[in-house]
Design a protein that fits this description.
The longest helix is centred in the last third of the chain and has 18 residues, at about 380-395. The relative contact order is 0.12. This protein folds into 2 domains: about 5-190 and about 380-400, Glycogen Phosphorylase B (Rossmann fold, 3-Layer(aba) Sandwich), CATH 3.40.50; about 200-375, Rossmann fold. Strands 3-4-2-1-5-6-7-8 form an 8-stranded mixed beta sheet, with helices on both faces. It has a 6-stranded parallel beta sheet with strand order 11-10-9-12-13-14, sandwiched between helices. By secondary structure, the protein is of the alpha/beta class. Helix 1 packs across helix 15 (about 380-395), helix 2 (about 75-90) packs parallel to helix 3 (about 105-115) and helix 7 crosses helix 13 (about 345-355). Helix content is about 45%, strand content about 15%.
Length: about 400
């Protein structure tokens, strides 16, 4: 590889929200000997720029006037703070990598790219615009008045970037359809942390948390969004006919909407909502599960994404019941780490029952999942692909200093 790089990563969410991907990329790059500065939104502050260290990453947190889920990349005040910081920052960066292209990410990237004459890249991880999340998980007024804006920012800047990393093959094809050449695209799926997200004994973890050893437990991991759980609740009611003590454990912020959904389907007494968990406690709770569910309907949004929870699931080595859509279908077809169900309640429930009925089948899936998490999707492996792409982008930008180092002699 070339000499160590000085990389600026610009994210459009807070430290908590960027953990699964931006942090993972930055930390793995630091472990490879590179310098990484990561711009993120402060959790709550509306004034002042905070500079700190985060596992070897130089973390810059900028203030935002919005609150809650609105702190997601649209605030002009946040953008101005980032421009101010970059204008006074003395660092000589080699390249810029943006997580998304909302205003607080793309305009600072364009500014610094022009100022320092360095390439910028875009990390495309979700299908937000036309046909995507904006039409699924946004209020009607937002779809009507802001849908076009989401689509514009998602699509308009890809062609200007020196490179685009994509989390799914659907986004790869979409980038090509928008004029990005194949050579400027790097497919980089979500990764795993086998050394941090350690598998726990189901029996030991249940003892720690006071859960019954005999109750079948179905797990669903989330942070603050609980999409497509209706099919899970309806399936749970069917599973309960054969396994009367079955429980559904859901991590992430407690949601009245989720509880009401469970009540409608008469499974509220089977629901375990843990509330938001710090990352060090999450494996203990999830290790209590016999299997995990990942409802994944065939929508453009799901075609365009890689659900980060699947990395946690395979690290913990539990079978998964999901649906044959996008990257999930490809992953299951290649490695058979669970069962894929049709998008109907009866089949989804029967796949759960099949795993509970056949411990030997589940054990085989467990071994394959652990192997895949360790040998194929570990960030320590994926980051080499990203590093090679950085070098290619810099070489194509005609920067001689970044040509591959030749061995002596």
């Amino acid at each position: 590889m070339a000499r160590p790089l000085n990389i600026l990563m610009i994210a459009d969410h807070s430290r908590q929200k960027i953990f699964p991907r931006s942090y993972s990329m930055a930390h793995a790059l630091v472990q490879r000997g590179h310098q990484v500065t990561l711009l993120a939104i402060t959790e709550k502050s509306r004034w002042g720029i905070k500079v700190s260290q985060w596992d070897g990453i130089r973390l810059i947190e900028t203030p935002d006037l919005f609150w809650g889920k609105l702190r997601s990349g649209w605030d002009i005040w946040d953008m101005l703070n980032r421009l101010y910081f970059l204008n006074h920052d003395k660092s000589a960066y080699d390249l810029i990598h943006c997580r998304g292209t909302r205003p607080i990410s793309i305009y600072p990237a364009l500014y610094l790219s022009q100022k320092q004459k360095i390439p910028f890249l875009i990390d495309w991880i979700d299908w937000f615009g036309r046909g995507g999340l904006v039409e699924i998980n946004r209020p009607k007024w937002s779809r009507l008045f802001l849908g076009w804006l989401e689509t514009y920012y998602e699509e308009a800047f890809l062609i200007k970037a020196a490179g685009v990393t994509v989390i799914s093959t659907a986004l790869l094809e979409r980038a090509k359809s928008l004029g990005v050449s194949h050579e400027r695209i790097c497919y980089l799926p979500g990764g795993t942390h086998p050394d941090r997200f350690l598998v726990g004994s189901k029996e030991e973890c249940r003892n720690i948390l006071g859960f019954s050893q005999s109750d079948p437990i179905i797990g669903f991991s989330s942070a603050d969004s609980h999409l497509d759980l209706d099919i899970v609740m309806q399936s749970l009611a069917i599973v309960a006919r054969k396994y009367p003590s079955v429980k559904l454990l859901i991590t992430g912020q407690r949601s009245t909407k989720v509880f009401n959904l469970a009540r409608i389907h008469q499974v509220a007494d089977r629901l375990i909502q843990t509330g938001f968990l710090p990352i060090e406690k999450l494996p203990t709770y999830l290790s209590c599960a016999d299997l995990f569910v990942l409802p994944f309907p065939a929508t453009p949004y799901n075609l365009g994404r890689w659900p980060n929870k699947v990395g946690d699931y395979i690290c913990l080595g539990r079978p998964i019941v999901s649906n044959p859509v996008g990257e999930i279908k490809t992953l299951f077809d290649r490695h058979c780490i669970g069962l894929l169900a049709e998008w109907n309640v009866e089949d989804f429930a029967q796949k759960i029952i099949q795993i509970l009925d056949h411990p030997d089948l589940a054990h085989q899936m467990v071994q394959r999942a652990l192997r895949v998490a360790r040998d194929e999707y570990d960030w320590k492996i994926l980051i080499i692909r990203l590093e090679d792409f950085y070098i290619k982008v810099l070489t194509d930008s005609r920067a001689p200093a970044f040509a591959p180092v030749q061995p002596n002699g």
